[in-house]
Specification:
By secondary structure, the protein is of the alpha/beta class. It is 44% helix and 23% strand. It has a domain of 180 residues: Vaccinia Virus protein VP39 (Rossmann fold), CATH 3.40.50. Helix 9 packs antiparallel against helix 10. The chain starts with 5 loop residues before the first helix and ends with a strand. It binds S-adenosylmethionine. S-adenosylmethionine binds next to helix 3 and helix 5.
């Protein structure tokens, strides 16, 4: 499964939903409480997981603009089942080129998930400066933060994790990616712009019976390690084989660290 394939996004969505930090989500919901209708723009929406996570917690009239540069994901997002009163407008757009276009107009909240670890520091600066200029609150969930725990341990885990974190910092289309530094960089940038920030961890905690996602994660990490190239092919394959055996035997569990952030301009709820 590729990084943004609909199959991968569907596989990870329940784990993302379970992981979202409740305190951050509560702060987002509280900030919109009592609004008769809300206008929300979700950037890098994929198939619409943030809408599915947030919409049931918000008021009855919600207008969502869903922005992504992948037309096939956007088509799925715009045809998803959703509660009455929730409208969706797909916005096909490349965030590296046309970010500002999607921030203009009346917007009560910008949301995103699993995006900030893909972007560069300069793109993050552009996002934070542009939203601050418009006084828009931002809910950015599920930024990978570099923490990985695998049980049972394996002698090659440290080398694989090092390679994964190095791969995280390679260019994903926005320039050199922030990778594990993204969450904390976002908090620092929003605070420097006078925002109030609520943040918390949103780790994937994946148990021994959750085999399909573990198989995909381990395969993805082995692929990342191959691209970085510090570990030999033989060692990488041997590691992946031991990991797959442990998953198949129901002996494997993993925790993957993420950070959720809700940043709002001071003075706004
Ligand atoms: C990891 S996925 C997250 C999708 C969704 N937010 C979720 O949590 O399921 C990253 C998303 O960013 C989108 N994306 C990547 N680069 C983009 C760009 N330059 N402009 C717009 N969207 C982009 C991808 O198409 C994909 O939907």
């Amino acid at each position: 499964m590729s990084g943004f394939s609909p199959e991968w996004l569907a596989l990870r969505e329940p784990y993302d939903l379970r992981a979202r930090c409740p305190a951050v989500l509560d702060a987002v919901v509280a900030s919109l409480k009592g609004c008769p209708s809300v206008m929300i723009t979700d950037i890098a929406c994929g198939t619409g997981s943030t809408l599915r996570a947030l919409a049931p917690r918000l008021g009855p009239v919600q207008n969502w603009r869903l922005a992504d540069n992948d037309l096939s994901l956007l088509a799925r997002a715009s045809t998803m089942a959703r509660p009455a009163g929730v409208t969706v407008k797909p916005v096909p757009l490349d965030l590296t080129r046309d970010l500002e276009a999607v921030l203009d107009g009346p917007v009560d909240l910008i949301t995103t998930s699993a995006l900030l670890d893909l972007v560069s520091d300069s793109w993050l600066e552009r996002l934070t400066v542009e939203v601050a200029a418009r006084s828009i609150p931002v809910y950015a969930a599920l930024s990978y933060d570099g923490r990985i725990e695998i049980t049972p341990g394996d002698p090659f885990d440290a080398a694989i994790v090092k390679a994964v974190n190095e791969h995280q910092r390679t260019d994903k289309g926005f320039g050199p990616a922030l990778g594990p530094a993204a969450g904390h960089a976002a908090i620092a940038r929003f605070e420097a712009l006078g925002y109030t920030v609520v943040n918390g961890t949103s780790d994937w905690v994946i148990g021994p019976n959750e085999r399909d996602i573990q198989m995909e994660i381990f395969a993805g990490w082995a692929g990342a390690a191959r691209e970085i190239g510090d570990l030999s092919l033989a060692d990488t394959v041997a590691w992946l084989t031991r990991r797959r055996d442990a998953v198949a035997a129901g002996r494997s569990s993993i925790r993957v660290g993420h950070v959720d952030v809700f940043a709002r301009p001071k003075g706004k709820r």
